[in-house]
Write a structure and sequence with these properties.
Helix content is 68%, strand content 2%. The protein is an all-alpha fold and 521 residues long. The radius of gyration is 22 Å and the shape is globular.
Length: 521
């Protein structure tokens, strides 16, 4: 049964078809269009596990060596704690604005606005990178199929690469525009394909490592799961930052809450299910490739700097053979393509919510009558992604790489704020029960503090010009300039919106002291 909680500082009535005074507002999205499984698939798809693995296995080994599995597990723990915060907040305020809406309710309009900005910018960065990886693997796959180096080399042609990338962004934008039903159908196939191929690859790697062996192969050791064996605290934080990137995106399940059947409970359960699938896939694959390839710095070793950015492409043939190896190229392409589509969900729904609550221009409140999607927000995100990637690619590949490296700041920024919002929002429930104290306050607080510490440490480390690509601006690391600059840009945009929409920033649109839905377990 649904009960209204009239405590000061509590959440908001959920409007169905009309606005709730002072609370969350109806946005015209297609309710009940997906269920638990579809929502969980969207969460897994947005993270893009195969894409994340191929781009971070080598760089994580470069940071922490044999402790790679430990770092994957360590990165999962703060994400799990933050996931509890998302679940509890969603039960009280099932709003597609998620982090933006919840932090406004907890801390007021300015902190909430910056939290929403962090989510939007993080998503635009990831969308551009996903499109770039999808383009790269498209030509790698075509080169493998045709056995032509000249076809593979087309990816190195900057004009061809950018044009192809823009085409993939346009296709993903079109599919997202057509709504959850279209997105869901494509995702079942793409996510299923990548998980099956990843499982097959892991099994074959373990069999070869334990059978006749391979150059550099290692025997399994439980010591690989000891995070304290990392060479230094700086190395540990660097590896943890990469690990956090590998889990980022599961909150897309919550962004689809207004379009999910059982919007108060189902999205939270879907996010938890997605997290379990991800951590299982990552640990299994990490152990398998480490057993097969080892952490050497030559050949197929995971520590080889020449192959660290694209490990699965290097291991596909040796592990699976030339025929089955093509499947791994297909899986990476499917992973990046699937995520390219679903990553539009959080950014478009956040922009829609910010617009509905008058924190962004009202033009973004437009919802397509046929598909019930935030059409203008989706198209704008697609155009913005294409423009961002084109400019960054033309300026310098180092700038693009540093922008991606700065993503950790955005992730830690808005996730930690959301976790703190949960602990503060439910602080009055601390003495209600052990469950409320732990899941609503203690776990979110620990998760938020962990991510805030990683944010602070990473920010300091990024000042060093050697961080990332090694480039600098007036002696300051480019990664720091990009990361801090994007957050500072948010302050500028917020200042402009303060003048255009004073009511929101005075706390008159989305208020803290409105009743909330409390959904009993």
């Amino acid at each position: 049964m649904v009960q209204l909680d009239n405590r000061p500082g509590a959440g908001a009535d959920v409007a169905t078809g009309s606005d709730a005074p002072g609370g969350v507002r109806s946005k015209g999205l297609n309710s009940n269009s997906i269920g638990l499984l579809g929502n969980a698939v969207i969460g897994v798809s947005t993270v893009a596990p195969v894409y994340c693995l191929t781009t971070t296995l080598g760089t994580t080994v470069a940071a922490v060596g044999l402790q790679m599995p430990a770092l994957f597990l360590a990165g999962f723990l703060p994400m799990l704690l933050v996931a509890f915060a998302y679940r509890e907040l969603n039960k009280a305020i099932p709003d597609s604005g998620t982090s933006f809406t919840w932090t406004v309710k907890a801390f007021g309009p300015k902190i909430g606005w910056m939290c929403g900005w962090g989510l939007v910018i993080a998503t635009i960065i990831v969308l551009s990178n996903l499109a770039g990886v999808a383009t790269e693997y498209l030509y790698l796959l075509l080169g493998e199929i045709t056995r032509s180096d000249s076809v593979t080399a087309l990816n190195d042609n900057k004009l061809v690469h950018v044009v192809t990338c823009l085409a993939l962004i346009a296709i993903a934008t079109m599919i997202s525009y057509r709504g959850m039903t279209a997105t869901k159908g494509v995702q079942y196939a793409l996510v299923g394909l990548q998980l099956v191929v990843l499982g097959l690859f892991g099994v074959m790697a373990i069999v070869k490592a334990t059978g006749h062996g391979a150059a550099g192969s290692l025997h399994f050791s439980w010591s690989w799961f000891n995070p304290f064996a990392a060479s230094s605290f700086t190395a540990f934080v660097a590896g943890l930052s990469l690990s956090l990137f590998m889990y980022w995106g599961w909150d897309a399940s919550l962004s689809a809450n207004e379009e999910t059947g059982g919007s108060e409970k189902t999205p939270g359960r879907a996010a938890m299910l997605a997290m379990v699938v991800l951590v299982g896939s990552y640990l299994f694959t990490a152990v398998a490739v480490q057993m097969y390839a080892g952490v050497g710095t030559t050949g197929t070793g995971l520590g080889n700097p020449e192959t660290s950015s694209n490990v699965l492409a290097v291991l596909a043939g040796p592990v699976m053979g030339p025929a089955l190896g093509v499947l791994l190229f297909v899986a990476v392409l499917a992973s990046a393509s699937a995520s390219l589509q679903t990553t539009f969900i959080p950014v478009s729904r956040t922009v829609l919510a910010m617009s509905v609550y008058e924190a962004l221009p009202s033009s973004f409140t437009e919802v397509n009558e046929r598909y019930k999607t935030p059409g203008r927000a989706i198209i704008t995100a697609g155009v913005g992604t294409g423009a961002f990637y084109t400019v960054m690619t033309m300026v310098s590949s180092h700038v693009l790489a540093d922008t991606i490296a700065a993503l950790t700041l955005m992730i830690c920024f808005y996730y930690s704020l959301t976790a703190f919002a949960c602990a503060w929002y439910f602080r009055g429930d601390f003495r209600n029960s052990v469950r409320d104290a732990v899941l609503k306050v203690v776990f979110p607080l620990i998760g938020g503090l962990t991510l805030a510490a990683i944010f602070s440490k990473s920010l300091v480390d990024m000042i060093d010009p050697s961080y990332g690509s090694g480039s600098s601006v007036f002696g300051v690391g480019s990664v720091f300039v990009v990361g801090a600059g994007l957050l500072a840009l948010g302050l500028v945009v917020m200042a402009v919106m303060t003048r255009r929409s004073p009511a929101f920033f005075r706390g008159e649109v989305l208020t803290r002291e409105t009743p909330a839905l409390v959904i009993p377990d």
